[in-house]
Specification:
54% of the residues lie in helices and 4% in strands. The chain is mostly helical. The radius of gyration is 19 Å and the shape is globular. The protein folds into two domains: 18-215, no CATH class; 223-273, Alpha-Beta Plaits. 43% of the residues are buried. It is built from 15 helices and two strands. Helix 3 runs antiparallel to helix 4 (79-92), helix 6 (102-111) crosses helix 12 and helix 10 packs across helix 12 (180-198). The chain has helices at residues 2-24, 28-33, 62-72, 79-92, 95-99, 102-111, 122-127, 130-146, 150-154, 157-170, 172-175, 180-198, 202-206, 209-215, 237-241, and strands at 223-227, 269-273. A two-stranded antiparallel sheet has the order 1-2.
């Protein structure tokens, strides 16, 4: 019965990821016309990383919106975007990375390709702090100083995969305008894809500034996963099996995927809300 329950949780997360990806990109005619949808719903941000310029995107990306707001407000705080990220963060923290991010799903599928894998180590844990540098430099500093969305313009592989390539393939006018920047973005995307094949969620762990933002909320998020200290024996089976660079369940690197639950010999790990300290799921 326990194994069946764990399989249900696992497939439930996968279905949530798939449904989320479809809902984020439900403007199907955009893929047919090769054009970006600019309707009223684009004023609403989704929780996960999903490019605004994807032909099917019906909503905005919080990371892209934050950069755009910083670039346009001339050193004023973009209160709407900060409030949106604050709401998402307080509710879910990095559970968004594990359940509500389409690019997270893509990374997990890429990692299933049968290739030699890089295991987590002190090196990968050190590299996991790189995303905070990217957050400061490309998401905050460049938009404020150069008035341009630095991360979207120079790095984001999700934008290249979901928007750049489809739009260029479907639009002949864009094909004639391809320059060095597009070639650079394709190179970055290719490196990230290869990295994700051999290293679990490589982009999420090392580069994603949206994950960096949500990580600050993990200790206070309303929904999450936790360890019952009374049951825990400190065997660290959960940390050994975790693909992320966690040092403990629920820390800033934890995406609350729940995979650790199935290896805990004491059944000490459970989902919870702040109103349910004992966990119920």
């Amino acid at each position: 019965m326990g194994d069946l329950r764990e399989h249900m949780v696992k497939f439930g997360r996968r279905y949530t990821q798939l449904i989320t990806a479809v809902l984020y990109n439900c403007h199907i005619t955009g893929f047919v016309r090769g054009r970006i949808y600019k309707g009223d719903s684009k004023g609403i941000c989704v929780p996960g990383l999903n490019c605004y310029s994807c032909p099917g995107a019906a909503f905005a990306c919080p990371l892209g919106s934050l950069q755009g707001a910083l670039a346009k407000t001339a050193y004023k705080l973009p209160l709407y975007m900060l409030g949106t990220l604050l709401l998402f963060g307080i509710l879910f923290g990095r559970m968004i990375c594990g359940f509500l991010c389409p690019f997270g799903l893509i990374q997990e599928l890429l990692h299933k390709i049968p290739l030699p894998k890089i295991k987590k180590s002190p090196v990968t844990r050190a590299l996991s702090f790189l995303k905070y540098v990217i957050l400061i430099v490309f998401v905050v500093a460049i938009p404020v100083i150069r008035l341009a969305p630095g991360f979207c313009k120079y790095i984001c592989p999700a934008g290249t995969l979901e928007a750049g390539l489809p739009l260029v393939l479907m639009n002949e006018q864009l094909q004639s305008r391809i320059g060095w920047l597009f070639s650079w973005k394709v190179f970055v995307m290719a490196v990230c894809i290869l990295a994700c094949m051999v290293c679990y969620r490589a982009f999420c762990r090392f580069l994603c500034p949206l994950g960096a933002i949500y990580s600050f909320f993990n200790p206070v998020a309303f929904f999450g996963i936790r360890v019952d200290e009374k049951k825990c024996t400190g065997c660290n089976a959960c940390i050994r099996m975790c693909g992320m660079d966690t040092k403990r369940v629920g820390d800033h690197e934890c995406i609350h995927c729940g995979e650790c639950r199935r290896v805990c010999p004491e059944g000490a790990i459970s989902y919870f809300t702040k109103e349910d300290k004992n966990g119920t799921i």
